Amino acid sequence: MAANKEFFYRKLHSLLGVIPIGIFLIQHLVVNHFATKGPEAFNEASRFMGNLPFRYALEIFIIFLPILSHAIYGLYIAFTAKNNVNNYGYFRNWMFLLQRISGVVTLIFISWHVWETRIQAALGAEVNYEMMANILHSPAMLVFYIIGILSTVFHFANGLWSFGISWGLTVTPRSQRISTYVTLGIFVALAFVGVRAVLAFV
Ligand code: HEM
Hints:
Helix content: over 70%
Distance between the termini: 54 Å
Number of helices: 8
CATH architecture: Up-down Bundle
Largest sheet: none
Number of domains: 1
Bound molecules: protoporphyrin IX containing FE
CATH topology: 3 helical TM bundles of succinate and fumarate reductases
Strand content: under 5%
Structural class: mainly alpha
CATH class: Mainly Alpha
């Protein structure tokens, strides 16, 4: 019974990482990328997102609760999991460890980022190009954001690799090798979009 419960939580944790959190991550990076077209383009994209119908329900059920539950169970996994030293090769062992480290770094980054933006908006500040430009004016913050984005994007892309195994999509060694290249491509593409957007505020 306990094993069944654990199995269910694992599956739910895995699914939430992709749907909805991963999809939200891609959408968020794409909207931010409008900053490369100038302040007005970014503000318009951001206003559009902010004026979506059922905004609070979307924020709570598609973003906040999924990330919170994935993060809580993720911390539990990260600090209790045994290393699979004998089950995978050298490279996969590193990826396994980096998945856990990037989860913790991503949690720190997301918490700070939400505090600086969404919570300040709830307290009356306006989230716009100028706000992000002010934040990223500090070199320390710029570095923090770049590390945070790379960590999040790595965590998502590498997570997609293990998601393929968790859900039986990549069973053979060959499909897992192909999946390594596909997820590496996803990492490079999203890292490019994310970092380019951040640099557009500087
Ligand atoms: C934007 C935020 C995040 C996204 C898009 C995301 C995405 C994913 C994905 C797709 C997986 C793979 C699921 C699988 O192996 O089947 C995963 C796994 C994992 N996530 Fe996240 N995640 C995010 C935030 C976090 C946070 C904040 C933590 C907190 C520590 C975390 C901890 C973990 C851990 C430990 C695993 C490995 C699970 C395992 O190997 O069984 N994640 N994540």
